[in-house]
Specification:
The complex is a heterodimer of chains A (346) and B (165).
Chain A: H1 3-38, H2 54-64, H3 75-91, E1 102-104, E2 107-109, H4 119-140, H5 144-175, H6 180-186, E3 191-192, E4 195-196, H7 199-202, H8 204-217, H9 229-232, H10 242-267, H11 282-308, H12 316-345
Antiparallel strand pairs in A: 1-2, 3-4
Chain B: H1 18-21, H2 24-38, E1 63-64, H3 79-83, E2 89-95, E3 108-116, H4 125-129, E4 135-136, E5 152-153, H5 155-158
Antiparallel strand pairs in B: 1-4, 2-3, 3-5
């Protein structure tokens, strides 16, 4: 690899890293604003015009708070917990195709950090690593509420990973590849060969299962049992304070951003948008594609928040019932149906 | 046993049908309800920039009134203090000296007039008791403060601003 290619890669990584941090930062602001609108309120409006400096104020507050490590906590693991949470949240963005290749001065710049051929498996690996941050943090706190929250998070994530994986298998049968770049490329445009080209129209049930599991994996309401305030004080981060708490909260929003990006890429055509063939400049298509992808991502983030301020939290046994008795059989049925359809109609 | 109100209603618990068990129609309905609120005007009143309008008979902070010539009406009769159920009002009477006729309306006036705003229950009985129409609860909400002693309002805060000034 030439030096210039390496530099371009590094620049791309930094840009994506910064974008995911900024998006996560402003997701906290958007969440509060959107929550306010859903409840006929105004929301944060004191820091800057319309309160747009609120995330900075929150961050500053988090940094300046006293850092407390409980006496009986396991010191090293107590710090590893939030670090792992934020690390696994950030590395998921590496395989997401953010746009088509850009061509500048005869040099092709791919807008994807790495197009590994097992992209989906990588995402799954990262997602399942995410539970360790919560588990280790909850265990190291030496507090029964933290531990209960962590146990809930672990069992919830493991249960919903199964149906998530099964819903993806049906998608893989349709696309025939594990590479996210390839999957995005296959959903070119919006209409192809007399049918919609986006995977959501080929796998509606699979998408439904995937989005339910994505809610569970990111610990968002209605599946936010690990941080269920009414029962568990603060859940796994009960004992955390200052920026370590900030990292846990931040990791949740980065996870939300990444899972929105994954959903947009897998099911909603990624960077593709309708009538993209009518534009002849490939660079313009690439840039508009990035814009289209981000619009889709923001729609998903909005949907996450919309659901959070609508649905009440599941009870724990209902959560397990839904995961094991409903979603997994549905996911298996979806695989079978997809197989039958592919055998007899194509 | 027969119920007294005769409002008994037998409820039956029906098993959920397929769509109810699938949650999704109910979720869609809930989402549409929250979305309808998304575009509604917020009910927030942005205090302190905006203030909620008080009703006409709102009882707020007290003010000691002056007459048409700008003289204090209060004669320190003590009826307000006597009528006060919370014992929030104290006063010290003094005799009007020569040359003070433009300050006080009658021969006797309140040299010290104090209301403890932490004790006051804003019932308005002082207003009703006053024979000279000297005290009215027609002010704003009593502002917050840090120290208890600062809630004992003296004449500097209670007496109406002088006329033509």
């Amino acid at each position: 690899m030439e030096l210039i290619d390496l530099l371009i890669k590094i620049a791309l990584i930094i840009v994506i890293f910064v974008i995911s941090l900024v998006v996560a930062m402003y997701s906290t602001y958007a969440e509060r604003k959107i929550a306010a609108f859903f409840q006929d309120r105004v929301g944060p409006n004191r820091a800057g015009p319309w309160g747009i400096l609120q995330p900075l104020a929150d961050g500053g507050k988090m940094f300046l708070k006293e850092e407390i490590i409980p006496t009986n906590a396991t010191g090293f693991l107590f710090i590893v917990g939030p670090s792992l949470a934020i690390l696994t949240a950030c590395i998921g963005s590496a395989v997401i195709p953010w746009g088509q290749n850009l061509e500048i001065g005869g040099r092709v710049i791919p807008l994807q950090v790495t197009d590994i051929n097992v992209g989906i498996l990588y995402i799954f690996g990262v997602v399942s690593l995410g539970v360790y941050g919560i588990m280790i943090g909850g265990w190291a706190s030496n507090n029964k509420y933290s531990l209960l929250g962590a146990i809930r998070a672990a069992s919830q994530n493991i249960s919903y990973e199964i149906s998530m994986g099964l819903s993806i298998i049906a998608l893989l049968m349709v696309t025939g590849t594990l590479s996210l770049g390839e999957i995005a490329k296959q959903q070119h445009g919006f209409w192809a060969d007399g049918y919609f080209s986006w995977n959501v129209f080929k796998q509606p049930l699979g998408f439904l299962l995937f989005i339910v599991c994505a809610f569970a994996e990111t610990n968002r309401s209605p599946f936010d049992l690990p941080e269920c305030e009414t029962e568990l004080v603060g859940g796994y981060h009960t004992e955390y304070s200052s920026m370590k708490l900030g990292f846990y909260l931040f990791a949740e929003y980065i996870n939300m951003f990444i899972s929105s990006a994954v959903m947009a890429t897998l099911y909603f055509g990624g960077y593709n948008f309708p009538f993209m063939d009518l534009i002849h400049s490939p660079n313009l298509v690439a840039i508009l594609g990035v814009v289209a992808l981000f619009i889709k991502i923001f729609m998903f983030i909005f949907f996450f928040m919309w659901v959070r301020w609508t649905l009440p939290r599941f009870r724990y046994d209902q959560l397990m019932d839904l995961g094991w008795k409903t979603l997994i059989p549905l996911a298996i049925a979806n695989i079978v149906l997809t197989g039958i359809f592919m055998t007899f109609f194509k | 046993m027969e119920s007294l109100s005769n409002k008994k209603k037998q409820l039956e618990i029906k098993p959920l049908n397929f769509w109810e068990r699938a949650y999704l129609p109910a979720i869609a309905k809930g989402l549409s309800i929250t979305m309808s609120h998304f575009f509604k005007k917020p009910v927030t009143i942005k205090y302190p920039e905006e203030k909620r309008e008080f009703s006409e008979n709102f009882r707020g902070m007290h003010s000691l009134k002056r007459d048409e010539q700008g003289r204090e009406r209060c004669t320190a009769c003590g009826l307000c203090a006597l009528s006060c159920p919370a014992e929030a009002i104290t006063m010290t009477a003094a005799e009007r000296q020569k040359g003070e006729e433009h300050l006080y309306r009658e021969e006797k006036y309140a040299a010290v007039y104090e209301i403890n705003m932490l004790r006051c229950i804003f019932c308005g009985l002082c207003e009703e008791a006053c024979p000279k129409e000297a005290i009215y609860l027609d002010g704003d909400i009593v502002p917050s403060d840090y120290l208890r002693k600062d809630f004992i309002y003296g004449k500097d805060k209670l007496v109406e601003a002088p006329l033509n000034q």
